[in-house]
Design brief:
Layout (H helix, E strand, L loop, with lengths): L1 H18 L3 H10 L1 H26 L10 H30 L3 H7 L1 H10 L1 H15 L8 E4 L2 E8 L3 E6 L4 E5 L6 E3 L5 E9 L5 H11 L15 E7 L6 E9 L4 H18 L4 E2 L1
Antiparallel strand pairs: 1-2, 1-5, 2-3, 3-4, 6-8, 6-9, 7-8
Helix pairs in contact: 1-5, 1-6, 3-4
Amino acid sequence: MPQTLLIGAAFQPLQRELSRIDWSQIGANFLKHFLQIILISIIFWVINRIGKHLINKSFGPYQAPEKQSARSQTIFVVVRNIFKYSVMFFYVYTILSNLGVPVGTLVAGAGILSVAIVLGTQGLVSDVINGLTILIEGQLRVGDSVTIQSIDGTVVSIGLRTIELRALDGTLHYLPNRSITTISNHSQENQNITIFLRIKDPFRIDEAKDLLQDQLPKAKHHTTKLKAGIVIQAPVAEKSHGYLGVQISTKVAPGYQAAMQTMILDRTLKILREAQIEVEN
């Protein structure tokens, strides 16, 4: 409500300035400078075409399907829009100046309105700045497995205003860029996974370790997603309760933590079950 009142009050100085303009004289200037306005329009049209061609050519190598990314696409759109609106602004300014419109006076009269608009859109500006920072620094890519604001999921879309994140339960979250303070990207480098199994009979922990060291490393030959050897440590005390058991750790390809952890756990339980070594939850 305060911002609405501020914007309403800001229109009053601008309205006063508009009422002082001699519109009949501007109409006469239009007829007088008609050919000049046509020439200016042609010049700006040429500038616009050349500028767009240069921008498309500069981003051309990144528009190929194999090189497309949310980052390059978004930066391309931002640069193109900045150029388009800049050309539009200078074109309108030049035309109005030739018609005798006191552009400087109007800008001064709209000063308060500009402040009101800035105050009303500061959230949008913050979204855009944060979005550009995320894109330029390459913090995220579409398809990355991430944790943002305690939400685990996969990046669906990266925009200048929001990031779309699909959680593990399928929920699609729209996160404003200005609200993002910490990004945990699990897809940038190989990830560590650790599994702890509590052995019911502590005297069989060494036997469980020997069995797993002999058979579990064979899993690496059946997948390319395991990026390091499987390390088995025992006896290991579980941190929170001090239970004794076996700890299994390895490195996996980004984005495959859950799948590889499930695969290793399934193989481990099968090995121990065949040896009749009981595991407690």
